[in-house]
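Inputs:
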Amino acid sequence: MRGFLTLLARNRLALVGLIVIGCVALLALITPLLPLANPNVIDTPNRFQPPFSAGAVLGTDHLGRDLLSRLLWGTRLSLAMGLAAAMIAATIGSAIGIIAGYYGGRTDNVIMRGVDMLMGFPYILLALAIVAALGPGLMNALIAVAAVNVPFFARNIRGITVGIAHKEFVDAARLSGMRNRDIILSEVLPNVLPVIVIAMSTTVGWMILETAGLSFLGLGSQPPQADLGSMLGEARSALITHPHTSIVPGAMILVIVMGINLLGDGVRDALDPRLKSGALSRPMPATTVDRHGPVPTARTDSLLDIVGLRTEFRVRDRVYKAVGGVDLHVEQGECLGIIGESGSGKSVTALSVMGLVASPPGVITGGAVHFDGTDLIGAPYEVLRALRGRRVAYIFQDPLATLHPLYKVGDQLIEAIQTHDPLSKEAARIRAIDLLKSVRIPNAESRIDSYPYEMSGGMRQRVGIAMALANDPDVIIADEPTTALDVTVQAQILSVLSDLRRERGLAIIFITHDFGVVGQLCDRVAVMYAGQIVEEGPTEAVLRNPHHPYTSRLIDCVPTLGGGQRKLAAIPGLPPVVDRLPVGCAFAERCDKADPTCRADAIALMPTGAGRKTRCLFPETKQERIV
Amino acid sequence: MSEALKLTDLSKSFAVGKRLFGPPKAMVHAVQPLDLTVTTGETLGIVGESGCGKSTLAKMLVGLLPPTTGQIEIEGAVLDNADPARFGKRIQYVFQDPISSLNPRKTIRQIMEVPLRRLHHMDKATRAARIREIFAAVNLREEFLDRYPHEFSGGQAQRIGIARALAAQARILILDEPVSALDVSVQAQVLNLLADLKEAFGLTYLFISHDLAVVEAVSDRIAVLYFGAIVEVGSAREIFANARHPYTALLAASAPEVGRPIVAPETAATELPDPLSPPLGCAFNERCGFATDRCRAEKPALTTDETGRAFACFNPLATTR
Amino acid sequence: MTGYILKRLVSAIPVLLGISVIVFLIMAMIPGDPATAILGSYATPENVEKLNRDLGLDQGLVPRYFIWLGHMVQGDFGRSFALNRPVLDEVLDRFGATLILAGTSFVLCSLLGVAAGVVSAARQYGWADKAITFVVLVGISIPSFFLGMMMILIFAVQLRWFPVSGMWPIYGDRTLWVLLDHLFMPALALAVVATGVIARLARSAMLEVLRQDFIRTARAKGVREGRVIWRHALRAAMVSIIPVLGIQAGFVLSGAVYIEMVFQWPGVGRMLVDAILKRDILLVQGGVVFIAACYVMFNIMVDVAQAMLDPRIKT
Ligand SMILES: Nc1ncnc2c1ncn2[C@@H]1O[C@H](COP(=O)(O)OP(=O)(O)OP(=O)(O)O)[C@@H](O)[C@H]1O
Ligand code: SF4
Ligand code: SF4
Ligand SMILES: [Mg+2]
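Outputs:
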């Protein structure tokens, strides 16, 4: 709750809305106590007094009634009507929605058909029909507006409830001995409540407009009683001669509704957890670069040379150093594996190369990526874009999410080709079919016209690979391309990749968390931990004889097939959070060899044997593993 | 030895394309009629690829899904979840996604108290004492009790999930991919914890996973599931090293292993069959290198050989012994 | 596609029936003797007797519904006693004007709203985004009838750019140009709210889509940013925008009631309000059913558009 209020207060616009609404509500509350003229006393000789005339600050209306008094009493009534309508609609609608969503099946089906039918009316028709039946009047207008909004809440809340009712914690509650009624009240409702509040706060304004609208048409509050809508309605005939009688109530409605909408948006932002993390911001076409100091030069003449790369995420007042100075290089035709646990910075490293880290919140703060003589980090967007997909291509993890769901795979392939090569559509199509064949998709000629959702996971990932190959790139960066797949499919994909690499002399950066895959596919491997490379070297040597304690213990705690039932050598503790990295060795917390020197200062990546580097003061030496 | 779980002819079909009235458009047979027993005190592993019916099976065992046919006996009594307060004491479930199995709007203490209050009707003081005991058993600090689920890492949340299952004091735990959402270093911690708890409390596990190596490391016996049916059951030590069913052999060969060259274990790039139009005969026949005409016409039944291995195949692989 | 359209048309039948039931039930809530209530001040004994005969008002609810439905299916919506002519004739006469007004508004708000939303999302936190967000906020907060009145005051009375009200001048030619001249202000006033709602939704739909993995894939392929936004992202965002366009069409149609009052536009909305105030129940009933039926048909078109956009729907 406190968090909610601070978030709300942080949003300046919402604060403005809150203040406006607070003032209006306060005025409405104390209206009976104010020394106002009677709003309904007719004084025809003094009609249409202009504002600021004596005895009537805002002037008088067509019957000579005091406008200020009518305005305040009208505001009071309009606010009350809007709130009441919103409460009624929210309560009934949410109850219907929760029941339909929780019980599902036929209950849901019948209820929702009814709701759909009500929503099949343009809302005012329903309201007009209700008013027509019940007769014009304040209460009837209130009922009409509430009734019209019930389906809106019911449908909205039902959707959310369905999502929650299928969450695992609901199953868990049932297994803990709870009954349906208890589950609805104690598991579902607390999770739906924020959504109800959001829906309410964003519709109160709307309800005020609707009730005012009915009064405006003469179907709501009846003379002489004033609400804002009826005041406008009565003033309409004098619009041209005495505009102030219209402007006064109209402006009031505008102010109220705007204030409520501002506040409602603030409430929504504060309650919607996705917005809390600032996640709903648009990623820029290329990652922001905020690099100070000299640009490191290439150390080698490798094809791709990453030097001292630093990438961080700036979320509010926190800085997550996802990549903290990574050096990596890949040679022509080589396969480099990057291995590490979740959150160790593998993906961010890979995405930084072509400026694909989502930004905001990602920022590249240091280092260089030398590719073919250019530093990609400082490169202008057009240069980067021209290289993307043509020289350096990506394959991503989840093939369903990474392909556009609404375009045929063939069109996506053709687009990849035509982006860098001005081929005719026909020629591009022929090439696309060839590409599909090269990743061993059966019936490529007909598969090219499939949509991604019509394909299996393995086939989709083959399309992903074909797309990466479209322009014969020099380097392919594959970010866990097989993690989402089943083992038998994974084996197929790996074999495709490995053959292609040999045929085309591709350089591959292969990211994974599976030692087995690295061992099968990669020439060299780099091990990442907390945003840094902790060990690097030829795959065989590293796996057989790891130098860094982390590598060694990580290998130990992964079970391998054929080992039988056994106890595993777990690593105690958790990886450090990257917004609070320790000064010295990031692994010190979990390392049994750690001593004070390990924690004193940053530790460099030092050579420890032929082609090998390790970031550790006391590298492992003796044990020779059997693999 | 007694039977902790006994499944007879258990199956589950889902209707797709439901209508308001009248029959649905088609049925998907997520779990085909199967028989299986779990002996008290053992860990039975279940492996299979995604979509093969592992979770459906597990949910039926804990009464979260009603079976289409067949019967489930828990410790000799037929499953009856009419009274959740009684049922929860007999069998419990640990979920795959540790975070989403905890209600984000409740503190850990509130979550832990539910089974104690509802299932065991403990008073406040007893509950607090019991929670302390359980937390000690799963190596969690008591200060965690007043925090909310989002403050925990996956591994910690999974321990909380296990702690909740323990609080029910059921002797049988269904573990549905309990470590697949976790990182390898944390996965080992949780697996070891599960092994310790089993010993300490004399539990029976049904351990579901898609990771062959993990299942092998924790199980006494393993059942391999393919397309909703059990294709092979055998001792964990033997089943992958010495597979009789071609699918088991394919799985074992596909698991990436350091030092073994990559070979696509299948020549034709085929994947799981379409559940809406299942193949005739053996469900594996389109991917199987040993398929004969009989395989395409007839469904093989699960048969047990002299060593106690059960498999459903007309042309099983030879034993290497 | 044809199959899908047919399927949707068939599925509209129960919806239409449901709508007729709802309208019928609402009208059955009228307190007191139905015939007198329907006829109101026109309730002469002959009228009452005739109505009782025509509508079976002396019978139970269910037979009454079927009698009413039977008449309606044959195109007989009853007779307006206030206007002394068949309801359907009056509704059809008025409907054209509403269609012109609401249709223009709908096209306006769809185009403006989507474009504003896309620009706003693409320039998130830039000045264009801020300006659009502010205008949108005012747009969704201002009552359309008040906006209409202010527009009359400023553009018609003060500046004399447009006629004050009406659809045609009392004297003079009925050319397209004259119509547009009269149409501009009401159509715009009517479009403002819906434009705001659509722009907001389009903005958040675009922001949602722009974070998706497939956008990153498009960028990784080297696709130009303009294409990423206007093709990849907008196409995916349209999937959630189109249903809202359907809903907003209902709001435009609803708002037309107010705008028709303010601008003296001779449409069905004004007819309905007058009918309610005169307690001309059959005219209300017929008008509501007719417009609701048209709206159902419109929503089928929306669904078809959605199905053309999203191949996953056609099953
Ligand atoms: N959009 C983001 N906002 C804030 N932090 C982020 C964002 N994306 C990544 N991070 C942080 O950056 C760090 C590195 O993440 P990264 O995705 O590179 O890990 P990874 O090694 O690829 O993990 P995985 O194996 O799960 O793919 C993590 O601590 C993560 O929390
Ligand atoms: S530097 Fe010290 S703490 Fe870090 S891994 Fe090496 S021995 Fe362990
Ligand atoms: S029954 Fe036939 S098709 Fe099925 S696994 Fe055995 S050999 Fe293969
Ligand atoms: Mg990653």
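Remarks. Chain C has a mean pLDDT of 86. Chains C and B do not touch (no CB pair under 8 Å).
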